[in-house]
UniProtKB/TrEMBL annotation:
Catalyzes amidations at positions B, D, E, and G on adenosylcobyrinic A,C-diamide. NH(2) groups are provided by glutamine, and one molecule of ATP is hydrogenolyzed for each amidation. Belongs to the CobB/CobQ family. CobQ subfamily. Residues 257-426 form the CobB/CobQ-like glutamine amidotransferase domain. This is Cobyric acid synthase. Keywords: Cobalamin biosynthesis, Glutamine amidotransferase.
Length: 508
């Protein structure tokens, strides 16, 4: 096998990331050397590779699904929004600019060249490359400069499958409309559809699939059933609108309750996945002071806009609630941006350009933002347990008191660290939660057998099983080996029957 395909979606969070991971795991188990690829990713969930490059967390997870080492070329362009109008541009793992939409246009040719070279490198090194699109391929206002969806497919002659989330409703309109809005040369590469998150009677769905085939001339390659607990390493905060992880435990004295501040620019909320996977721990996302009232632990997570999100925290009353908790000796954990908020003072002439800003003053720390970005994979220990994590930050914390806590500090029941991923270390997580439970007066005891790495592997295996059992894997192989079928019809918007012939098909 030697080929590639693009997994596109009708919307953000339609299932592109998990389907790409599932195809990677299925192919890897079939003995195929496979790699993931996402040309351009807009996400605040990122990860640091072993060689110090920053890529989307979802692509890191997909590489694990494929059984290969995550590399910068698997996500050459990463956009990290800091406001509604500006984003940091990370190119091949390193930040190169902070731009608005118009300034971004000036970088497009440089980014396009990096995308093409990265995909070519992966295709020369692996038997198959599974590419993930970004958002929807039918964003017609963005098509001219597109490097992640049909622009990529056209440039690299990739067959495309489009996944739609039926749980949201309107999936047939979304799939038909996605194809219908594309120009004929783009349509010629769209080879089929995948329905995601189906729960119901298959016999009721079947007539719709047949009508979709008649209207578009394209088959549905599979229907993936609803499966809970598949939100590990989500890249879009839309995932927080749905339940993340397993069912919540019933509230009781043995239940540990965790409230996480849902900042407008929340980043690396994947840090909390390890807590959600711990039996007896309930994790909720909080947007107001009342959401913190019965929490045993409040977490201030990462943020791409520390000063702005601190202002949000103060504006909705949560800052005052956190300060009261600290005075009462009730646990608070700050991670990266959240840790910076707990400091006495923040000096930021880089991210927000706000100058000197008062922090919450709950830790003996001063933070200064620098132009250089720290990207690292540190190791250390806490509670007598080995801990490794990863760092992604511009803010440098200067600690002048308290007790050591990883690279940060602890003062009473307030903890702070710049390390993402620390809670994924099983021994450390259990020891930390036992400490929190003791301070909160809970009878909660962490389960000694919980392995976050093992759970991740089992989840990736589930994704591979879903592909193997519910998709037309023969059709996927044909697309990888031969490209999009010749003569796919052109779909006219508005419900007209498909016209025969779709231009160049890129292979037979």
């Amino acid at each position: 096998m030697s080929g590639a395909l693009l997994v596109a979606g009708t919307t953000s969070d339609a299932g592109k990331s998990v389907l790409t991971a599932g195809i990677c795991r299925w192919l890897a188990r079939e003995g195929v050397r496979v790699a993931p690829f996402k040309a351009q990713n807009m996400s605040l969930n990122s990860m640091v590779t072993a060689d110090g490059a920053e890529i989307g967390r979802a692509q890191y997870m997909q590489a694990q699904a494929a059984g290969v080492t995550p590399r910068a070329v698997m996500n050459p362009v990463l956009l990290k929004p800091g406001s509604d109008r500006r984003s940091q541009v990370v190119l091949l793992g390193r930040p190169v600019a902070d731009v608005d939409a118009l300034e971004y246009g000036a970088l497009k040719e440089r980014l396009r060249e990096a995308v093409a070279a990265s995909l070519a490198e992966l295709r020369s090194a692996y038997d198959a490359v599974i590419c993930e699109g970004a958002g929807s391929p039918a964003e017609i206002n963005l098509r001219a400069g597109d490097i992640a969806n049909m622009g990529l497919a056209r440039a690299a002659d990739l067959p495309v499958i489009v996944v739609g989330d039926i749980d949201r409703g309107g999936v047939f309109a979304a799939l038909y409309g996605t194809v219908g809005l594309l120009e004929p040369a783009d349509q010629a590469l769209v080879a089929g559809f995948v329905i995601n998150k189906f729960r119901g009677a298959s016999e009721l769905l079947a007539p719709g699939l047949e009508q979709l085939r008649m209207l578009t001339g394209r088959p549905t390659l599979g229907v993936l059933p609803w499966q809970s607990g598949l939100y590990l390493d989500a890249e879009d905060s839309l995932a927080l609108d749905a339940a993340r992880g397993g069912a919540e435990a019933p509230y009781g004295k043995e239940t540990l309750r965790v409230a996480v501040a849902r900042f407008p620019r929340i980043s690396n909320f994947t840090d909390l996945d390890a807590l959600r996977c711990e039996p007896g721990v309930v994790v909720r996302y909080a947007t107001g002071a009342g959401d913190l009232a019965d929490a045993d632990l409040v977490v201030l997570p990462g943020s791409r806009a520390t000063v702005s999100d601190l202002r949000w925290l103060r504006g909705n009353g949560m800052a005052g609630a956190v300060e009261r908790r600290a005075r009462e000796g009730r646990p608070v954990l700050g991670i990266c941006g959240g840790y910076q908020m707990l400091a006495e003072r923040i000096e930021d002439d880089v991210e927000s350009r706000a100058g000197v800003v008062d922090g919450l003053g709950l830790l003996p720390v001063r933070v200064r933002f620098g132009a250089d970005k720290t990207l690292a994979r540190p190791r250390g220990s806490a509670y007598g347990k080995d801990v490794d994590g990863y760092e992604i930050h511009h803010g440098i914390a200067e600690v002048h008191g308290g007790e050591p806590f990883l690279d940060g500090c602890r003062d009473g029941a307030v903890y702070g660290t710049t390390w993402h991923g620390a809670l994924e270390n099983d021994g450390f997580r259990r020891a930390f939660l036992a400490d929190v439970a003791a301070r909160a007066g809970r009878d909660f005891t962490p389960a000694p057998a919980t392995s976050f790495a093992g759970l991740r592997e089992r989840t990736l295996d589930v994704l591979g099983d879903l592909v193997a059992e519910h998709l037309d894997t023969g059709a996927l192989r044909r697309l990888l080996e031969g490209g999009a079928p010749a003569g796919l019809p052109v779909v006219a918007p508005g419900g007209a029957p498909p016209a025969p012939g779709g231009g160049s098909s890129g292979g037979g």
